[in-house]
Structures are given as structure tokens and as C-alpha cells.
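>> Question from a student workshop board

For tomorrow's exercise we were told to take the sequence and the ligand below, predict the bound structure, and bring the output to class. My setup keeps failing. Could a helper post the expected result so I can at least see what it should look like? The ligand is manganese (II) ion.
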Amino acid sequence: MTSSADAKKKLAQLMAVFVPEDRVLIALTADPDSIASALAVKRLLWRKVSHITIAYHNPIYRPDNLAMIRLLKIPLKTFRRIKGEHFSKVVLVDSQPHHNGEFAQFKINVVIDHHPPAPQGPDVMFSDIRSYGATSTIMEEYLRAAGVRPSERLATALIYGIRTDTGIFTIPDVQRDIEAFLSLYPYASAGLLRNIQSSEMRIADINFLKEGLRSYVLRRNCVYLHLHPSPNADTLVQLADFFLKVDTVDMTVVSGVLGDRLVIIMRYLGQLGRWNNVGKMAAEAFAGLGSAGGRRTAARAELPLARLEKELDDLRSDTIAAFVRKKVASARPRHPARPPGPAKTAGGTAPVPKEISLLPPPPPLAPGTGGPVLLPEKKKGGQQ
Ligand SMILES: [Mn+2]
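>> Workshop helper replied:
Here is what the output should look like for this input. Compare the format with yours to find the bug.
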């Protein structure tokens, strides 16, 4: 944790950027962490500058994100509705200038973020980039250094930001995030949090869930689902997470055609004692066909249909579904228990990622009970 003297020094440096006449824009790629962090910056600058606007550039689909904005009454504008020249200072939170071309339209003065920094660092008056689980955690330190008691709305937003970006503390090195969470918790509203968290789906998504329950394919503990027509990518992610809840399922592959691309979402439990990595599986399965990769437990591939057209006989949905199953199955290790240690990769040896798992080790299986469900690799009637 940053010492309180260090935190006060950083706060002083941040505040020194601003003068009372400033009209401040807080720019972001909207998600719970960035929105909460923007609220915290706004609170720090309250009565210190003449005007503050929070604006984002990306479409927001996720119902929990929309519920957060609605329930916490967070005022947000889109980049399209603002003009850069109306602002004398621009603060970028939870992102860095090179992350998105949309940020290039502003002269950015302050960057506060938790993503890995670019080698040369941002060229700004003040930057604070730390490898915490969430930018909301960095902002909690600023608020504490400033002696600010967060409002219910701000504390709830920051808690939701931390919760979301750390996957409820299931990523490595979350010590500081847990401390920030605990210090914010007494000020937050449990009821509002419950309301935001339970807004996972829109009624339109239920139809995709219904179709998913009808047409999924289970092979070697992996659920495959290809949806046609396809919902947006966020809903594909939700369905991938949903099928992972089944006790005998440890991996999900949910795909759909979005515009001119096939989008494939992969989720994996990454059990203890196994050396499997769904990011590497995605990269291997779809190498040369588009972009593919991710982390040990979550991956994504986006393949241009123009490229697939050369690979497949046709682009019918059952042809695409069979292609995805075949590619993933071929990249999936047959032998689950590989000894832990440096894995061979194209670039040499990669370090074993440090991962916190909240899962208890699986109980030993009695012969003939609860073992892996092995389905023959054959065509099932009715699947898409
Ligand atoms: Mn973040």
C-alpha cells in the first residue's frame, strides 16, 4: 500500500495541475471501474474548478452497467455531444492515450490508470499508473489522502468498479483492492449493489438463453454454442459465463456472427493442478484466421468472414458451428494433468502465471461416478 505521506504527496501533485478557472473534461471508455473513478476525480475537484463534465466514447450495452448509471444517477455525455475546445484540462481515467484513437482529439493533462504502461509513458502533466486490480482502488487512496468521506453513491460505484475489474478478487495480486473494498464498504449501499448486480440480463437476452438451452452441444466437459441470429458480444459473454455454472462443465465456447466477423468467446475454469490456458488454446485454434487470444480463464477470437469464406465450403450456421468445435477440440489438451512449470511457447519459455483460485481442490472421484462426460464426436440432430 502507498504510505499516507506518499498518498498525500501524489494528491498534492494532482491538485497542482488545476486552477479555479478550469473547465475539466474527464474522458473514459465506459465501464464500471472507469465510471466510478471518474466520479472520484469529480469529487476531488469539487469546488476546486469551475466546471466538470464526464464523457465516454463507446456504446454501453451491458444491463448491469446501464443499471449502475441509472441507479446511481451518474451524469455522462458521449464524446459526440462535447467539444474539446470547451475544456481547459482533460483527465483520462482507467485508460491511456494510446488505448483508443478517440482520445487523440483531446490534449490530455492527467492520466490515472491500472493497465500496463506503454514503454515511454504518457506525455502529460501528471500521470499515476499502478498495477492494481482496479483504477477505483487507486482513487480510494486519493479520497482517503484528501480526507474525503465518500457519499453512498460514490462508495457504491467504487465498490462495483473494484468488484467488476477484479472478477470479485479472482485475479492475482488483489491485496490493495481488498483493502480499498473494505474501507469503502461501510459507506456503500448494499441494496443498490444488489440491484446493480442482479441486472445481468435484458428481457431480449432471455430468448437467446432459451435458444442456447435448446441448441448447446456438450463434448468433453465443454459446452459449445453457436447462435444465429447472434446477440451482441456482451450477451455471448453472459451465455459463456452461464453455461460454466454447470457442475460437469469446465469450459464454454460461445460464438456468433456480428457484422462481418465471427466472434468466439471462450471461458475456462482453470482448475488447480492443471496446466491449461484458454487464451493459448484460442490463439492456437484460430491462428492465422484473425485475432485470437486472452488469459488463462477467458479468451476471445474475432475472425473476418471474408477470411473464413476461403476456409469453409459455405457460411451456414451449422457449418460455422462445426468448424468452431473442430478447431477448439484440436487445440484442447487431451491430457489434463501436465506438470506445472514453464510452458513452451513460440517465443521461448513463459513464466507460470500466478493465479489465485477460490475453488477448493476437486474431491477424488469414485470409479464410474461424476467423471468427465465423454460424448462421441458425432453430429447431433437439431443442433445449429
Ligand atoms: Mn479498470
